[in-house]
């Protein structure tokens, strides 16, 4: 419990420092937030490792998976922000990670399941893909908000915390490209290593994941061939991410929390 509370506190401190940096001097943001953010990520990961050690295996229940995806998002945000780009993303991501960790600690602990290396590889690929593409979805929302504010000539202070529009758009597509590669690896490892899809209630997950994969792939192809950007990129990204959320967390929510069956 102590580790969880300290991790949550560090996430919130990092968030407060980021908000304070924007309010005080947005043109020269401080990196003081990075130390508590990295500490929060490290303790978040440690909380999962200790829980897995106590339960005898990896826990991939709904709340555990949600917390792990949030952990991945927080780690990616700290990594990208350390390079001086999109640190403002932490204002959204770090509270999400704190809330997900709190939910996991209070509701998510179940007996761990020992998986062989092939299924572990598939599961970790999936979690990394979801975390990366969730970051892409947040970047898409920020891109939409930035474009909307500029069109209306509403020069809010928070706009200064974001990179220029072209840079933000470039970062969005690079993130989508990485997430698409991870999602491709997830689908391939699932095809190779997961057996008996019907018995494991995975058909709906596979169909929705493939649809999401097609949308992300189509967006990248459209960007390369036709120069798609702006509102088109935002719509495709958010639609594809919605399908991915339904594929994984939607099905886990219904099966595990509503029907009380393993996902």
From TrEMBL:
UniProt keyword terms in alphabetical order: Membrane, Transmembrane, Transmembrane helix
Domain of life of the source: Bacteria
Any single GO BP term: cytochrome complex assembly
GO cellular component: a single term: plasma membrane
InterPro entries: Cyt_c_assembly, YpjD/HemX
Gene Ontology MF term list: heme binding
UniProt key word Membrane: yes
One Pfam family here: Cytochrom_C_asm
Residue ranges of every copy of the Cytochrome c assembly protein domain listed in the record: 46-257
Keyword ATP-binding set for record: no
Residue intervals passing through the bilayer: 34-54, 61-80, 86-104, 124-145, 171-194, 206-224, 236-259
Family matches, as PANTHER family: INNER MEMBRANE PROTEIN YPJD
Protein name: Inner membrane protein YpjD
Organism of provenance: Lysobacter soli
Lineage start: Bacteria, Pseudomonadati, Pseudomonadota, Gammaproteobacteria, Lysobacterales
